[in-house]
Amino acid sequence: MTEPNGPPAPNPHLWTVILAGGVGSRFWPVSTPARPKQLLPLASEQPLIRDTVDRILPLVPAERLRILTGGHLAAPLLSVLPELGEGNLLLEPRAAGTAPVLAWAAAELERRDPDAIMVSLHADHFINPPERFRSLIARAAQLAVAHGRLFTIGAVPVRPETGYGYVRVGDPLTGTEAGPGDPGYRVARFVEKPDAATAAEYLASGDYLWNTGLFVWRASDLLDEMQRVSPELAGLIPILREGGTEEFFARAPTISVDNAVLERSERVGVVRATFDWDDVGAWDAVRRTRPADAQGNVVLGPGYAVDSRDLTLYADDGPVVAFGVENLVIVRTGGVTFVAHRDRTPDLKQLLAQLPDELRNL
Questions:
Q1: If both were cysteines, with which of 42, 48, 170, 346 could 188 make a disulfide (CB 3.0 to 4.6 Å apart)?
Q2: What is the dihedral of CA 44, 48, 51, 57, to 10 degrees?
Q3: Has residue 174 got a pLDDT over 90?
């Protein structure tokens, strides 16, 4: 339960899983399979995964925290999270999308704690202030138990963003079981990434929130709902609950939790974020999460912007000097120099598809 003027009270059934298995190809050439973006200081002076863990630990202790990732990232992750150990890692047998991996995590938590409430976080988000984040997570946990729903956190849009999915907010939930506070709302529908005109309409209407991909639900409710609404996974969930992880991953399709469950279920709720949120998904996000100088330049590492405006400079392989240019992303790392117009960085995957393997996978 959330205290009015203090931190949320401890909940012994609250667990956290952090999705940290991606490559982050839109941060190439800095983010690579060997050093993905979650290990990089892109939203602060610390690696993204460090920020994520620090935000949640005051609410959920380390012994109830699990990081979902690949085996090749176990050692690098633990090197920046020295308070954690191998028992905090759930190493994915294979990359299979968020639905299978979250089902696996839910089954693991359910075995340890049949009343487990699962908080699902991403390792590449900017969230501030952390105190409000923790309070809202605690409230969402109350709502998840009271209503037996799968809850997503919806961020209030601050720009007509075309790179995010949206949630249309439905009617408020009724009942007093969850106590005072945000009542939570039904999800009227999930909307895929819109075009610019539609995004502007969503922003103006006030009826839509950004779909952050931050989730709170009872582990058992997620598994039960997967069996009910996801034909791709329904027959595999009993196998998973009985400990058949190897068979589950051998047979599970690659599918997102949004497509497999949330867009199909009538038992999804949303709570409105009370904190600032952004997805650190591409180079353009760095300009929103890191401080800029008077000319709008964001510089990470030994970079120098002279008579230049609105640049993002990233240097970890010697100095970068920019002179008389504007609206560029300039990166120097691992012997590679990358230069692009700011407007093209969200399309970086198109570039990578045209590069030779030895350059793409540094």
A1: 170
A2: 180
A3: no
